[in-house]
Amino acid sequence: MSDMRYEAPKTVEAAVALLAGANGAARMLAGGTDLLIQMRGGRIQPELLVDLKGIPEMTSIVAENGSFRFGAAVGCMVLVEHEAFAKAWPGVTDAVKLIGSIQIKGRATVGGNVCNASPAADSVPALIAAGAIASIVGPKGRRDARVEDIATAPGKTSLAKGEIVVSFLLPRRPPHSGDAYLRFIPRTEMDIAVVGAGINLTLDDKGVCTQARVSLGAVAERALLVPEAAAALIGTKVDAAALKRLAAAASAACKPIDDKRGTKIYRIKVAGVLARRAAEIALDRARRKN
Amino acid sequence: MAKHHVTATLNGNDVEFLCETHQTLLDVLRDDLHLTGSKEGCGSGDCGACSVTLDGRLICACLMLGVEAQGKSIETIEGMAVGDKLHPLQRKFLEHAALQCGICTPGFLIASRSLLERNPDPTEEEVRFWLAGNLCRCTGYHKIVEAVLDAAREMRGA
Predict the structure, then answer these.
(1) Are residues A222 and A278 in the same domain?
(2) What domain range is A36 assigned to?
(3) HEC string for chain B
(4) pTM for the whole thing?
(5) Which residue among A38, A42, A88, A207 is buried most deeply as judged by most CB within 10 Å?
(6) Hey, of A103, A109, A116, A191, which one would you mutate to test binding to chain B, going by the most B CBs within 10 A of its CB?
(7) ipTM of the modeled complex
């Protein structure tokens, strides 16, 4: 462990070159709140650490014509304290606020939350619902990917060797749009989601839902985009009947495991309840936004 | 491999140290700089006993490498009192008996100061949520929350 190399490149291209050129195990270091624990526990013994926090593109938040692009290595506390971002994307902000303690959020990053590929990562269903697009740079250049296409299974991603998630784009939304994220844990703070539900919806001038995205966390091997649940809302005024169909579709999409936080049956039931409650919050936010 | 040469600011003073890549900031503070006020409880970011601030932001020193401190400003419990004059939070922790064994206390004080810098008038609920990353196995938390609220009142001049 004592011969582990540490590099802090200033550009994405230099970081990609380091990672792609590594002979042994190489790891990206953003917040380090998962990486250091894995190293300490002996689960991984990288020969090279590439610290991404010196790369300006990865640590900045840029607002452009109503869209936001934030670097994958932006600290969670930096993001949730960004007033314009929190106003535009309250659901994503609520989700990021739920990632660990204040201390953890002082270091942890959304890029890390996404790329560690935990099925229970709180920011992921909110980002998927928001339609967030990741900008990825690798040895073959730059590409875009939807957040739902990054994690493939617990701890596994679709990223090729040397590829880095550099930033996330949250596109501009039409008027009367709102998003929300809720998670269920058995405690009031500091726990891992039993179920997480992210909803993002848009209403027309008459209050009819024209667009919706629904995502569930911790109910499958990765966070799910659930188009059937979104379809239950589109074309309705998000009334009680639509919410009931949403809940049923959300529950039907779940493929959870039993573990100490919850049984399969419980998770399936709670997924429907949380999706409905999150939709009610998103609806309220959409009605307030012009 | 040669050790990293790191220069930083520690409690307002320039500091430099040598560290290996795997050493955490907490290792460096305690073992090399001999500042043992920051405690190691869990070593995994759950207990908050190693809370320090980095460029004004509350973090766990056990979850950061020493080499990552290059060019940063670190504040630890050792910088909280000014000479013999305790910080109001330190005084209120004593007055309210907000500690018993004391292992968690430096972390709670640093975390509480970080809260009051951002929010001079927190509600009890806000104090409890902000301090959710700090564990205390002695007090049951009530006295800690009371001490923080009382210190906030005094610091606001209310």
Answers:
(1) yes
(2) 5-51
(3) CCCEEEEEEECCEEEEEEECCCCEHHHHHHHHCCCCCCCCCCCCCCCCCCEEEECCEEEEHHHCEHHHHCCCEEECHHHCCECCECCHHHHHHHHCCCCCCCCCHHHHHHHHHHHHHHCCCCCHHHHHHHHHHCCCCCCCCHHHHHHHHHHHHHHHCC
(4) 0.96
(5) A88
(6) A103
(7) 0.97
